[in-house]
Amino acid sequence: MKKIAILGAGFVGRSWSILFARAGHPVSLFDTVADTADGALAIIDGSLNSLHSQGLVDDPAAVRGRITIAGSLADAVDGAVHVQECVNEKLEVKQAAFRDIDAAAGPDAAIASSSSTMPASAYTEDLPGRHRCLLAHPLNPPHLVPLVELCPAPWTDAGVVDRTRDLMASIGQVPITMTKEVPGFIVNRLQVALLNEAFALLEDDCISAEDLDKAITDGLGLRWSVVGPFETIDLNATGGLAHYVDIFADEYHDMIKDRGAPRRWSETIVDRANAAMRARWPLSGIQDRQAARDRKLTRLAALRSDTPKA
Amino acid sequence: MKKIAILGAGFVGRSWSILFARAGHPVSLFDTVADTADGALAIIDGSLNSLHSQGLVDDPAAVRGRITIAGSLADAVDGAVHVQECVNEKLEVKQAAFRDIDAAAGPDAAIASSSSTMPASAYTEDLPGRHRCLLAHPLNPPHLVPLVELCPAPWTDAGVVDRTRDLMASIGQVPITMTKEVPGFIVNRLQVALLNEAFALLEDDCISAEDLDKAITDGLGLRWSVVGPFETIDLNATGGLAHYVDIFADEYHDMIKDRGAPRRWSETIVDRANAAMRARWPLSGIQDRQAARDRKLTRLAALRSDTPKA
Description:
The structure is a homodimer. By secondary structure, chain A is α/β, with parallel strands linked by helices. Chain A is built from 13 helices and eight strands.
């Protein structure tokens, strides 16, 4: 088991620490804000106990014992084979972090950013070690939603991408590999495509926001959690995907073509969607609702870890 | 418990029969093809045993005992409070079925179509009882994916919609109510919006079909099975949906705007997606894969039936 360095001890950094340590890796966690680093272990303890109670962590104390708080960035990355950057989502902060990590990390360490919006090319171009830098974007919350989007910069070494994919798979995450940088990567592009239609249906007064959410949680999203969008249509015609497209493609195009090009979400419709949320749930309860979401995701993770891969 | 009539004993009709009978309703199932009707009960027995083994049906024999095969359409609908039409997805077949059902059913019966593509207005306009006709579209497979889209024709009585919604909720389905007919209803519009972006990402050579499916099953779709698209963004910013939109709307629009208006899926890209499916799974194994999907959905249904509603 090789040493992993995590830079940034906020929510995402703590989740990565748990994921790597649960798989047996020694983890060195560093944050430039000493208070954040000091508080991180107590929060990690709470998460580990919750995961333990659901059977997702066997020995919380052992996992916890593999995570140490580093006194400096240099200490954190010393001897690490993989550095996971989890600092603030600001370009200049990412640039400074990558400059410092690249200068301090050993020559064989891969350096991955957790950024949800900024590609690796935006903060690695001028670095001597830019060939070992890439994006490894987790979903929220990373210890319950296993997907990790890997996206190389134009100058990232293919071997570094492969090695990172293997590492992510070995700790139980589900890595996917992009071939090139596109804005939003994969997940957010798919999310926005669906949100655009969702806001448009709300704007056209076709359905309430509450019922639209149910269309996904109790319908499409439920099925998509088991079979992806291509596999879904591959299974819904006797001749597979090509047959399904033969039957439905014209109708599907006719159905949606009048939407035209993507539009900005109007203030009116955002207000309406937000009002629908606040009518059901006051903002003051948001942390309880996040906890409820995570309890459900935890149960799903336990079920899935127990389900044979198809 | 009131009598329910199901017209059409194919896959969808059998699923509806199980759903209504499981909830305690006597179900009368009719098919114009005698062989289909005769074979239906044996297939229903198999499904009930599978559901029983997962804890989704307590007493398969009792459920089975509530389902009878009717000798005629008139016998099936006699005394029924709700008629669920599940005949072939062809306009003239739907029109004939609704004409016959409307003529035979009692004045207080609601008549709902299971059509996935044709709105109720297309086959009910000229009927004396058109006010009691509507669409109630289930997803596939209906006894494992609870969503039902309800869509009234312009002349459907609001009370009939409400009553159908109550009935669907009472048998454990999750009904959503549209206010008017739009092509594709809700679910397929959302599905197509996402598929359009998925095919475009494949066409742009950004990612493999296999990894794109994982982006949903192990990422977005997994989370969406717990919180819908609006609720997801409501929970991902401390100030809720409005706050999330403040932060991300410009970036999201910039990300996707170059896609322009929806395009037809090109032959090239459909071939590529289909080839990716066939490279992983020969067509001959499609039924085994459908069974594997349904086993996973069954486990999810068992988990969800056991999970407190948030």
